[in-house]
Design goal:
Length: about 650
């Protein structure tokens, strides 16, 4: 219906007379260099100003001038140009006979009557001027003659009987016999001027010769609106190469065409930005009221008068358009780093685009102006990642993180010097799919479930829908966050003693060869606690275990911190004996006093001074990032479960009898 309305409206190119103007139907116009219109290929909808809103503008507003029906009445424009008179030239091929001219005259009378009945004004007039153009005639080769088949042509040996090509005075006299065709003009006379510049030329041609003459006249008269009708049944001169004409199989078919429109110039002076709407009342009379265009509703302007106000469209909401997005916490030990079926398993909403043009019946990807289709895209975002402890220190422990790093700097200016643990990077497309409307609407959940996420991170989701003229996009955010921490698969070793009573055990045993081997084995078991710990498949090379190692050497009273890697050598037999033997205290005779006398006391050597102790601590931890939708940075933390720790302490004591044995 939009296209039909546009064709019927025409374009007012003539003079405006009071409240009406005479125009021409663009759908019948012949194409030329000055004017080319093809409504069938318009790649856009009609503007909203030509459509009206669903509601009716009535007298609910104060200071409103309404008609008898309670509607806001239309007002008429009062613009005058050229006294409301327009002129049209009728150009006839000289080859047309009188019967054809008579039919055209009847058609002219009907056109005039139609305009007079519709215009509702006295001073809107259309005048016709007629002329003849040369043509190659075969004894009147129009519809009512048979040309070479006429009886009087039988003795001509088949040769056509040609008439003079040029326009003769007798040809113009034939036109004067039909007063309805208006003033007769001889275009061959250079002194003859058209009384009124025509707005259009309507031609009735019989062949290529007459058509060429019409085109030449249209160009010389600077007329861009032309309607060309072809009237010729048979004969060598009926043919020719020419375009932009309407062929009339019978002359009376002309009555099917009316190239004129009458447009009343109505306006809405009592409704700002309103549009006139015409209708037929109960008595069949045409009336007019004012209403708001589509996308507007009636309200008041700043002066209290009726006005059309733009309505903010309440479009179908996008199920992904949540400000904080969607967050999924992975707490399970995933054997494979692949997350799918996020709609079914995680409850991620599924967008449902709909459209009045295509909907679920369109099963093609290439059609029309914009190729109706559905696209599904996933991109992994990589924002800068800062240490979580730095961010917590900047905003305060327990406070929620701001969404932007600039807000962090606003709270703690020194944050501007923070260096990210992971630098910001380009977004990476992990999924892009183009499907038909039918496929997506019938299998939309399956398409969302087929999305595969192969890492923790922040993902930008986008579903775009395209119809013939427009598009819409539903965008969202999904963050997949690691809440599964490394778990030990072995037990933490326990210290041993020489006594069988564990309650009396003080983590100490005699330094013997067997005990050295046993303690060294427990050290290896301690390292297995971290080495053999398991984690999910998405957490690779991201451990940040908390470790410490301290040792108390022979003849020392306190523990000394050492590099954790040295814990392997703590109870290694060769290392222990070497450390003992190289000590200067080991080489000193404990029974010899400073005055070279002998120490004859019961305990010349303090008990336990030849003791070697090692303390080890490990807490299983990993780096994980607390991804957040809507934020331009993320916090990276090193954390683990509180129960995933291992503490091991063991002492071995060498006594005098131990060394003797």
């Amino acid at each position: 219906m939009k296209l039909l309305w546009l064709l019927a409206a025409g374009l007012p190119i003539g003079a405006l007379a009071s409240s009406a103007s005479l125009g021409l139907k663009e759908s019948l116009l012949a194409e030329n260099r000055q004017h080319t219109v093809s409504f069938a290929s318009l790649p856009y909808d009609l503007p909203s100003s030509t459509l009206i809103s669903e509601g009716m503008a009535t007298s609910a507003i104060k200071n409103l001038n309404t008609n008898d029906y309670g509607h806001i009445g239309c007002t008429e424009a009062s613009k005058f140009e050229d006294n409301g008179e327009v002129s049209v030239v009728l150009a006839f091929s000289k080859c047309l006979n009188d019967s054809a001219l008579d039919v055209v005259g009847q058609w002219v009378n009907q056109v005039k009557a139609t305009i007079a009945n519709i215009a509702y004004v006295d001073n809107l007039k259309i005048t016709f001027q007629s002329t003849m153009v040369p043509g190659a005639c075969e004894e009147r080769s129009e519809k009512t003659k048979q040309g070479l088949e006429d009886p009087h042509m039988v003795n001509q040996g088949g040769a056509p009987k040609l008439l003079a090509d040029g326009v003769l005075p007798s040809d113009l006299e034939r036109l004067e016999a039909f007063p309805t065709l208006g003033n007769i003009v001889n275009l061959a006379n250079d002194d003859v001027k058209l009384s009124v510049k025509p707005i259009a030329v309507i031609s009735f041609v019989t062949g290529e010769k007459s058509y060429g003459e019409v085109v030449q006249f249209e160009a010389s008269a600077h007329v861009s609106k032309t309607f060309n009708f072809h009237i010729c049944k048979s004969g060598a001169n009926c043919g020719g190469t020419f375009n932009n004409f309407i062929d009339l199989p019978e002359v009376v078919d002309l009555f099917m065409y009316n190239p004129f429109t009458v447009t009343r110039s109505l306006q809405c002076a009592d409704l700002d930005d309103g549009v006139p709407v015409t209708y037929l009342d109960d008595y069949g009379a045409r009336q007019c009221f004012c209403n708001c265009p589509a996308g507007y509703e009636i309200g008041e302007n700043e002066y209290g008068h009726a006005a059309c106000k733009k309505v903010v469209e309440d479009t179908c909401p996008c199920v992904w358009a949540e400000c904080n997005g969607f967050k999924h916490k992975v707490t399970t030990d995933e054997p494979v780093c692949s997350f799918k079926e996020v709609a079914t398993k995680w409850g991620l909403p599924v967008p449902f685009p709909t459209d009045g043009y295509v909907a679920d019946k369109r099963d093609t990807l290439s059609e029309g102006y914009k190729d109706p289709r559905i696209t599904l895209t996933v991109e992994r975002e990589q924002d800068a990642e800062y240490k979580g402890r730095d961010i917590r220190g900047a905003v305060g422990v327990g406070a929620s993180y701001p969404l932007t790093f600039q807000e962090v700097v606003g709270l703690y200016p020194k944050a501007s010097s923070f260096s990210p643990v992971v630098a910001a990077g380009h977004d990476t497309t992990t999924h892009h799919e183009v499907v038909t409307w039918k496929d997506y609407q019938m299998n939309r959940e399956a398409h969302i479930n087929d999305l595969e996420f192969t890492s923790y991170g922040k993902y930008h989701l986008k579903v775009s829908a395209y119809d013939y003229f427009s598009s819409a996009t539903c965008e969202g955010c999904l963050v997949i966050v690691d809440y599964n921490r490394p778990k030990a698969t072995t037990t933490c070793p326990k210290s041993f003693c020489d006594t069988a009573d564990s309650a009396q055990c003080t983590d100490s045993a005699q330094l013997t060869t067997d005990n050295l081997e046993k303690a060294d084995g427990l050290v290896n078991q301690y390292f297995d606690f971290a080495i053999k710990a398991k984690n999910d498949a998405c957490s690779v090379d991201n451990r940040c275990d908390s470790e410490s190692f301290s040792r108390r050497d022979f003849f020392e009273k306190d523990y000394t911190e050492h590099d954790c890697s040295q814990a392997h050598q703590c109870f290694n037999k060769d290392t222990v004996l070497e450390n003992l033997l190289v000590s200067t205290k080991t080489k000193t005779n404990p029974l010899l006093e400073e005055d070279n006398s002998c120490d004859n006391t019961d305990a010349p050597v303090s008990i336990g001074q030849c003791t070697r102790c090692c303390k080890m601590h490990t807490a299983l931890k990993e780096w994980w990032t607390d991804y957040r939708c809507g934020s331009d940075y993320d916090a990276r933390n090193c954390e683990g479960d509180s129960d995933q720790t291992c503490d091991f302490k063991q002492c071995l004591v060498m006594n005098g009898d131990t060394l003797a044995t």
